[in-house]
Automatic annotation (TrEMBL):
Pfam families: ABC_tran (PF00005). One of its GO terms (molecular function) is ATP hydrolysis activity. It comes from Fluviispira multicolorata. PANTHER family: ABC-TYPE IRON(III)-SIDEROPHORE TRANSPORT SYSTEM, ATPASE COMPONENT, METAL TRANSPORT SYSTEM ATP-BINDING PROTEIN TM_0124-RELATED. Residues 6-243 form the ABC transporter domain. InterPro entries: AAA+_ATPase, ABC_transporter-like_ATP-bd, ABC_transporter-like_CS, Metal_Ion_Import_ABC, P-loop_NTPase. It comes from the Bacteria. This is ATP-binding cassette domain-containing protein.
Length: 253
């Protein structure tokens, strides 16, 4: 069987005011790839991720999943293939962690009053994987920012989609949980033969997690390569418009 492939062909996107946000984006990634999308604030990363995830439609160009145009894939199949973690997500009141996870399926009812030990096995596993099992019955609005992000990640991990789009998944995480997320992404991509796209502003996190790096600048793809090549070339200065001293903070030992 041939490898799972995700491809973007000549993607352009302009706003209703005819402001062109993305220009001629092309890439192709294969199962097992973890791609980190870098770029300055406003470069167009979230917009590109939303187009790839089928949340927004490109103004021009095609998104292909195994040569099938995303426009021709029904919404149900799309939701089985693709999971998207938005940069921020509204927390519903009167909803606890288990109830949020159960939105993936109807197996657990809204009024369930169970102890952690009676949780479905996969629920406990996902919560344990993201170190949040002890908060299973907590209301979403009472969670800290990092705990809420870990609950969202646990829900995504349960869905086992073939392509994950994670928009700043590390944003609220402390160092320990960032490192845990690195391990979980690598394990997920391997085990599920999946492709993971990540946007992040944490260069250290990007360096740890990704085997491919691509970079956007003002809506144009300015880089797309193996991560090793990207890191060996010290091009952060150019990418982020840093001065030499700023860049030394990252590269100095
Ligand atoms: N519907 C829209 N109408 C007008 N402008 C938009 C629209 N959507 C996004 N933008 C603008 O497009 C640019 C790119 O936004 P986007 O959220 O994709 O950037 P980003 O690279 O993810 O930034 P950040 O790193 O700050 O999250 C921003 O300047 C944003 O204000």
């Amino acid at each position: 069987m041939s490898a799972f492939v995700f491809k973007a062909e000549k993607i352009f996107y302009s706003t209703p005011n005819h402001n062109i946000l993305l220009k001629d984006i092309n890439f192709e990634y294969n199962e097992g790839d973890i791609v980190c999308l870098l770029g300055n604030n406003g470069a167009g990363k979230s917009t590109l991720i939303k187009i790839c995830a089928g949340i927004l439609s490109a103004s021009f160009g095609n998104i292909l999943i195994n040569k099938n145009n995303i426009k021709c894939i029904g919404k149900t199949q799309q939701s089985q293939l693709i999971s998207w973690l938005p940069q921020s997500l509204y927390r519903a009141e009167n909803f606890n962690v288990i109830e949020f996870l159960s939105l993936n399926s109807l197996r657990v009812s809204k009024n369930m009053q169970k102890s952690n030990s009676e949780l479905p096995f996969d629920f406990s596993n996902a919560l344990r994987d993201f170190d949040i099992l002890d908060q299973a019955k907590k209301e979403l609005i009472l969670l800290s920012g990092g705990e809420w992000k870990r609950v969202q990640l646990a829900r995504l991990w349960l869905r086992k989609a073939k392509i994950l789009f994670l928009d700043e998944p590390d944003g609220d995480l402390d160092l320990k949980h960032k490192i845990n997320l690195v391990g979980k992404c690598k394990e997920y991509a391997q085990k599920n033969k999946a492709i993971i796209f990540i946007t992040s502003h944490d260069i250290h996190f990007a360096k740890m997690v990704a085997n491919k790096i691509c970079a956007l600048n003002n809506g144009i793809f300015v880089w797309n390569s193996e991560a090793d090549i990207f890191w060996s070339l010290n091009i952060l200065q150019k990418l982020y418009g840093l001065n030499k001293n700023d860049e030394n903070h990252f590269y100095s030992k």
